[in-house]
Design brief:
The protein has 400 residues and is an alpha/beta fold. It has 3 domains: 151 residues, Rossmann fold; 136 residues, no CATH class; 70 residues, RNA polymerase sigma factor, region 2, helix turn helix motif (Rna Polymerase Sigma Factor, Chain: A, Orthogonal Bundle). It has 16 helices and 11 strands. The strands form 2 sheets. It has a 7-stranded parallel beta sheet, sandwiched between helices. Strands 9-8-10-11 form a 4-stranded mixed beta sheet, with helices on one face. Helix 2 links the parallel strand 2 and strand 3. Helix 1 crosses helix 12, helix 6 packs parallel to helix 11 and helix 11 runs parallel beside helix 13. The longest helix has 20 residues. It is globular, with a radius of gyration of 21 Å. The N and C termini lie far apart (61 Å). Bound molecules: nicotinamide-adenine-dinucleotide and magnesium ion. Magnesium ion (MG) binds next to helix 7.
Length: 400
């Protein structure tokens, strides 16, 4: 590949945190296509020990970590004949990113659990390809300030944020007027609250354009995903809240747009395929050739746009409200949402109960303006306790 400069020929040793998930497995696919550029150094999972074993046997990383210690003996037995170090537990998971042999971390863990390893990776000065949007929601200020102070680059993997990042290439000094975050609208676009109150997890798990992990798929159906992405964009790109617009674009071809001070708008387009933003985050500033399906404009005679229906899908405005309030309130939004999504998936609550639970948790908040990691940890825990109490006691106090 003579057109790619020599810097890229230095093999990058990658730690994939959450290698068994949707982003994790697609990261491995991207790396498979470029064996001279990327090498697997670390693989981790929470519970999917069988897939982690398969991945370890195939990629022969230096280290694997299983978060749930229950699976440790199975994992270490299965890999005992290989020169692979095997660890278990939250502490090992957070520490593994600090290894000297790690050149880049792919943060593909879902939820609050991604925060501690992300902070450790920043402290260890590792560049991060970051898919875990919850990190920005919970601790956007802490994470971006630390990264800036340490000179650590955070490369967005989320497709919308990758799109904005790509639109900003070469525009570093040019003032932004706003960004336009596109949203597919999810499987229930156009439906009313009556319909939504009866949807099942199976219905909500059928996303029209993307195949993703369960949590983000439910978030996409409830528009919370776009709310979390608003907060993610705010911190990643240093924006004002008024500079972030959400626009429903059901075809998911335009992945997001940037409008500059002169009114000019740049968009990044392509078929919905997470491998592209993953690859861009791994290879930035280079673009690598690949064999992903190409977009055929003639097959899309119409690209359409509409305002989000925030009366029916209340989560989007709750996220804007949390961002305006700041401090630990977005952490409360996130924890309440993680609990609500889990309860919905277990059929303990209805789809339409989710925003009520989240609003209830936000209203009960003890605000902390500049939360430390410890404050955020406590806020997350307290919010989880609050929500699990009202769900398990079948209390209706939160039904406003
Ligand atoms: P997933 O559920 O498919 O995978 C999550 C991974 O994290 C798995 O490997 C799992 O074992 C691990 N994990 C889960 N809980 C953990 C814990 N407590 N501690 C340690 N490891 C844990 O999720 P996903 O869809 O791949 O999403 C990962 C992240 O990327 C999420 O934050 C999501 O919002 C973001 N994201 C995903 C997509 C997508 O297309 N899937 C797109 C944009 C952003
Ligand atoms: Mg996204």
């Amino acid at each position: 590949m003579p057109h790619i400069n020599s810097e890229l020929h230095k093999i990058k040793r990658i730690a994939i945190l959450g290698s068994t998930g949707s982003i994790g497995t697609q990261t491995l696919e991207v790396m498979d296509a470029h064996p001279s550029l990327f090498e697997v150094e670390v693989l981790t999972a929470a519970n999917n020990v069988d897939l982690l074993i398969q991945q370890a046997i195939k990629y022969k990383p230096n280290v694997v970590v299983i978060q749930n210690e229950f699976h440790y003996s199975k994992l270490s037995l299965a890999l005992s004949s290989l020169p692979i170090k095997v660890y278990a537990g939250d502490e090992a998971l957070a520490q593994v990113v600090e290894m000297d042999s790690v050149d880049m971390v792919v943060m593909a863990i879902v939820g609050f659990a991604g925060l501690k390893p992300t902070l450790n990776a920043i402290d260890a000065r590792k560049p991060i390809a970051i898919a875990n949007k919850e990190t920005f929601v919970v601790a956007g200020q802490l994470v971006t300030q630390k990264a800036k102070a340490a000179g650590v680059n955070l490369y967005p993997v989320d497709s919308e944020h990758s799109a904005i990042f790509q639109c900003l290439a070469g525009e570093f000094h040019n003032p932004l007027e706003k960004i336009i975050l596109t949203a597919s609208g999810g499987p229930f676009r156009g439906k009313n609250l009556d319909f939504l109150s009866n949807v099942t997890p199976a219905m909500a798990l059928k996303h029209p354009n993307w195949s993703m992990g369960a949590k983000i798929t439910i978030d996409s159906a409830s528009l919370m995903n776009k709310g979390l992405e608003v907060i993610e964009a705010y911190w990643l790109f240093g924006l004002k809240v008024s500079q972030i617009q959400v626009l429903v674009h059901p075809q998911s071809i335009i992945h997001s747009m940037v409008q500059f001070a002169d009114g000019s708008i740049k968009a990044q387009l392509g078929l919905p395929d997470m491998k592209l933003p993953i690859q861009y985050a791994l290879s930035y500033p280079h673009r690598l050739p690949n064999s992903f399906l190409r977009m055929d404009f003639a097959a899309y005679s119409q690209l359409t746009f509409e305002e989000p229906d925030t009366e029916t899908f209340q989560n989007l405005n709750l996220a804007f409200q949390a961002l305006e309030n700041g401090g630990n309130i977005p952490c409360i939004l996130n924890a309440a949402n993680e609990m609500a999504v889990d309860a919905f998936l277990k059929e303990k609550i209805r789809f339409t109960d989710m925003p009520h639970l989240i609003r209830y948790a936000m209203n009960q908040a003890t605000p902390i303006l500049k939360p430390s990691f410890e404050d955020l940890f406590e806020t997350d825990l307290n919010t989880r306790l609050l929500i699990s109490n009202v769900i398990n006691n079948k209390s209706t106090i939160w039904k406003d």
